[in-house]
Write a structure and sequence with these properties.
six-stranded antiparallel β-barrel; Pnp Oxidase, Chain A; Thrombin, subunit H; about 240 residues
Length: about 240
């Protein structure tokens, strides 16, 4: 089976082990969230991703997706025959492929006809996968302010000026994340597993590695959604 053969690395990692797969292997359904990035930009780099949804497809002919919301668009960035890079997550697998804009439909509503994907790459997302981030957090026990600089479902890396606590002590983190444009507060206990000191601009900085404990199912699901979202929208942040 395909899922058993997927490798454990992610797009953007130093060990790219993605596999070419067939369209049907993705098991996509109407409403599947995707992100489009234009390959033709003034900078020569792909554009920031535009959120869209699949509305249907005709095998070996076309892939139809909604026009991204007008709030995301400046002018009319989509032009027929332009190439776009597509990324999506379905289940615990991340996929990417490149297609062309075959037709832009404006009536009775706006949507895009994309060329049918042929060269699709897919990879399994490890539960322990981390992302680079910058979330302000507060340690409830001593009101210390800190910054979460990397995050996974099971733990985080935190920079602070003051010590969060002693090694192996339990602290409570309070921070807010953004998942699908919705702010979600997180209150979670964590064990301090490691600490390391460094200096930045002549100021001492303490990096602490923490492991989440007593994590609730809804918190794990929320963090999983955040990490998958970041992998799709900003693959360069994957660690």
């Amino acid at each position: 089976m395909y899922k058993q053969n997927l490798k454990n690395e992610l797009p953007g990692s130093t060990h790219d082990s993605s596999e070419k797969i067939n369209f049907e292997d993705m098991h996509l359904k109407v409403g599947q969230k995707m992100h489009l990035a234009l390959s033709n930009t003034n900078s020569g780099k792909p554009s920031n991703p535009y959120a869209t949804s699949m509305i249907g497809y005709v095998q070996n002919s076309t892939l139809m997706v909604t026009m991204p919301l007008s709030a995301q668009l400046i002018g009319e960035p989509f032009v027929e025959e332009d190439q776009v890079h597509v990324r999506l997550v379905n289940g615990q697998n991340a996929y990417k492929f490149s297609v062309y804009i075959d037709k832009i439909i404006k009536i009775p509503f706006k949507y895009l006809h994309l060329s049918f994907p042929k060269n699709i790459q897919g990879q399994s997302i490890r539960k322990s996968r981390r992302i680079k981030c910058d979330y302000q957090t507060t340690i409830a026990e001593n009101s210390i302010s800190a910054n979460i600089v990397d995050l996974s479902i099971y733990g985080a890396g935190i920079n602070s000026i003051l010590p969060l606590g002693t090694l192996n002590s339990v602290v409570t983190l309070s921070f807010t994340i953004l998942v699908h444009d919705r702010e979600i507060p997180i209150f979670i206990k964590a064990i301090i597993k490691s600490t390391k000191q460094s200096y930045k601009n002549d100021q001492k900085l303490i990096f602490s590695g923490v492991e989440f404990t007593e994590i609730k199912p809804d918190q794990e699901l929320t963090l999983r959604h955040l990490i998958y979202q970041e992998i799709v929208e900003h693959p360069e942040r994957a660690i």
